[in-house]
Amino acid sequence: MSLSFHYAGSPAHIVFGEGASQEVANWIAKIGCRRALVLSTPQQKTDAQALATKIGPLAVGVFSGAVMHTPVDVTETAMKLVGESGADCVVSLGGGSTTGLGKAIAYRTNLPQIVIPTTYAGSEVTPILGQTEGGRKTTVKDAKILPEVVIYDATLTTGLPVGLSVTSGLNAMAHAVEALYAQDRNPISTLMAVEGLRAFRAALPEIIATPSDLTARAGGLYGAWLCGTVLGAVGMALHHKICHTLGGTFDTPHAETHAIMLPHTAAFNAVAVPELLQPVAEIFGEPVGGGLWDFAKSIGAPRALRDLGLTEVDLDKASQIAVENPYWNPRPIDRQSIRALLQQAWEGRRPE
Ligand code: NAD
């Protein structure tokens, strides 16, 4: 066998366990900190306050203003509190929006981060930060952005609504599917991607059936860790380009957009790299796009872009933007083929 690849293992501490978030004060001390600022969205404020109480004297405050897409003005407000409180680390409790705020603070201050993820977005294990200012989203990649400690505690995720669990899971799966054909993939990223897909194949139907099932919830977090790790490790392609275009230009919701697009982008690329996507066919059924679409339908996922408020005129604009400065993709793209792909996703048709 001829092997040639580059693999960089993540230096982050990854902690799994029911009730593991109870140990957060110990982790604050272990990383040499004494003044933690707890972050959350407004919706998770009560949980963040309860966490700060649990942390006790090592917590110096709670900032519950995190919102989607990390607007710079919100970060600046939080930065004031960082300064006033003398915080020496942040504890982010929540999904990608809260993790994004913690990363934005770390990017500016180099403060260590402890993240307790409560969705499956996977941002907690990537060195990537997307920020918005004046309606424009920019992305930076920097070692400072990668959180130092991630605590996956299923007991904190039983309240994640079923609909969000489904779209968030499919969002994570999209990272893994694209990692399978990434130009810079390596044997470890492929192992993690396949294991992540298997984890969600098993966990999502169980989560819908019994949202309080801790074993299923832990399976979702396990999938989130694996899929997020490959998102941070290898390059993404057409699927992420289209989702960033739709989210950035038409403000479509992040996880739903990924959930709807995944079967279509996978079907499109399966034509070029069927052997690389064979694990997806084995886990979800043949053909690759149809199998993913059937799975998404079986778990009640949204399947049509038109349900997100997009019009057919928007699809013309989106296909134009998606082919400008394209990401590398295993199958060549042109405006016409992307327009057809978007039409299929807009109508919610099963890809062949
Ligand atoms: P989110 O963090 O916005 O969460 C969605 C909503 O669900 C919020 O109101 C949140 O408070 C609530 N919520 C989260 N967990 C909950 C729980 N367990 N119980 C009840 N409510 C809960 O959504 P998301 O999809 O996790 O994150 C999306 C954001 O993350 C986007 O801005 C996206 O760009 C970013 N993201 C970044 C990366 C990266 O690597 N930089 C990766 C993935 C996502």
TrEMBL record:
Which InterPro entries does the annotation name?
Answer: ADH_Fe/GldA, ADH_Fe_C, Alcohol_dehydrogenase_Fe, MAR
Q: What does the record list as coiled-coil region(s)? A: none
Q: What keywords would UniProt list here?
A: NAD, Oxidoreductase
The answer to whether UniProt assigns keyword NAD to this entry is: yes
According to the entry, every stretch annotated as the Fe-containing alcohol dehydrogenase-like C-terminal domain falls at: 166-346
Molecular function (Gene Ontology), one example:
maleylacetate reductase activity
**Which part of the chain is the Alcohol dehydrogenase iron-type/glycerol dehydrogenase GldA domain?**
11-153
Q: What is its EC number?
A: 1.3.1.32
Q: Matching SUPFAM superfamilies, A to Z? A: Dehydroquinate synthase-like (SSF56796)
Q: PANTHER family given for it?
A: ALCOHOL DEHYDROGENASE (PTHR11496), ALCOHOL DEHYDROGENASE 4 (PTHR11496:SF102)
Family indicated by similarity: Belongs to the iron-containing alcohol dehydrogenase family.
Name of the protein: Maleylacetate reductase
Q: Which organism is it from?
A: Rhizobium tibeticum
